[in-house]
Design goal:
Strand 1 and strand 2 (65-72) form a beta hairpin. Strands 1-2 form a two-stranded antiparallel sheet. 36% of the residues lie in helices and 21% in strands. The chain is globular and about 35 Å long. With 73 residues, it is α+β, with helices and mostly antiparallel strands.
């Protein structure tokens, strides 16, 4: 009724920040957990890493606020 799935309303940006701040993961570890690992788990091969021939989405963050999302195919 409130639009949440599986009982969670945690957003990806909040999860990413928590990995770094509360679980002391590096930026590289948090990036892997938020992009490469989910893509690999789902068997999606055209995203999940920055590489030639793959789609890329970059998020520009200032402080804790998402300022811009850049998408390249």
């Amino acid at each position: 009724s409130n639009g949440s799935l599986a009982g969670s309303t945690l957003t990806m940006d909040s999860a990413f920040t928590r990995l770094i701040r509360e679980h002391h993961q590096s930026l590289a570890q948090a990036s892997y957990a938020a992009s490469t690992l989910p893509a690999e788990t789902l068997g999606i091969t055209y995203v999940g890493e920055i590489a030639v021939g793959k789609a890329a989405h970059f998020v520009r963050v200032e402080g804790e606020e998402v300022k811009e999302v850049l998408r390249f195919s």
